[in-house]
């Protein structure tokens, strides 16, 4: 029961992911990291089986670090996407089949911001926005309505905030916290976490009563 989201702007990408782990209606953990750094200007968010996400993310991170140590520079975002999808495809042909869907976001000095949607089979496509997980059916219509290609970081943050508010309204088990990461030419910046305390008044107070 997880949700990951990504939005691409004119010169940035924002990746958002919840931090809760649950099973059969039980809350297990509230500090799960689903978004991981794979280079100085590139990150990936994972959704799927908890153990597969953890092992596959660690495998990709270590190989990206090895590439930088060996060559002295990071892979481009498209190069990282190609490596990730090739590994997913290769593992599907073996007994070790990772059930992991991903969003890969980053910034290249030559091509600008990039966001790539990747499914369990290793199929990948560049997108302006997207996501995986249980909440994506509620989030997609919201992003489609409010998304603009020239939006700034605050506007993109607000769109993701609207999505999280909707998830709080819809689900019996709330996705308690959402971590957000901004990726641009300056590097990776962790944004303010979205949780119940950060916007309680936005949807619990409701319209003010007339006296």
Automatic annotation (TrEMBL):
Stored Pfam families: Proteasome
The entry's keywords: Cytoplasm, Nucleus, Proteasome
Keyword GTP-binding: no
GO cellular component, one term: nucleus
Keyword Cytoplasm attributed: yes
Coiled coil: none
Family according to the record: Belongs to the peptidase T1B family.
Function: Non-catalytic component of the proteasome, a multicatalytic proteinase complex which is characterized by its ability to cleave peptides with Arg, Phe, Tyr, Leu, and Glu adjacent to the leaving group at neutral or slightly basic pH. The proteasome has an ATP-dependent proteolytic activity.
Protein name, per record: Proteasome subunit beta
Species name: Drosophila sechellia
């Amino acid at each position: 029961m997880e949700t990951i989201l990504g939005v691409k702007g004119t010169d940035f990408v924002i990746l958002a992911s919840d931090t809760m782990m649950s099973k059969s209606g039980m809350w297990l953990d509230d500090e799960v990291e689903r978004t991981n750094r794979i280079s100085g200007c590139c990150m990936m968010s994972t959704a799927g089986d908890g153990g597969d996400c953890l092992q596959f993310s660690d495998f990709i991170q270590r190989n990206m670090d090895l590439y930088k140590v060996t060559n002295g520079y990071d892979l481009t975002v498209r190069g990282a996407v190609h490596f990730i999808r090739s590994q997913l495809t290769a593992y599907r042909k073996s007994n070790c089949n990772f059930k992991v869907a991903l969003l890969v976001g980053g910034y290249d000095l030559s091509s600008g911001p990039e966001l790539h949607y990747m499914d369990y089979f290793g199929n990948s496509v560049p997108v302006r926005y997207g996501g995986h997980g249980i909440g994506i059916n509620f989030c997609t219509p919201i992003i489609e309505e409010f998304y603009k290609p020239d939006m700034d970081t605050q506007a993109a943050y607000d769109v993701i905030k609207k999505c999280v508010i909707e998830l709080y309204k819809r689900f019996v088990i709330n996705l308690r916290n959402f971590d957000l990461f901004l990726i641009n030419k300056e590097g990776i910046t962790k944004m303010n976490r979205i949780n119940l305390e950060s916007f309680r008044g936005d949807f619990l107070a409701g319209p003010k009563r007339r006296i």
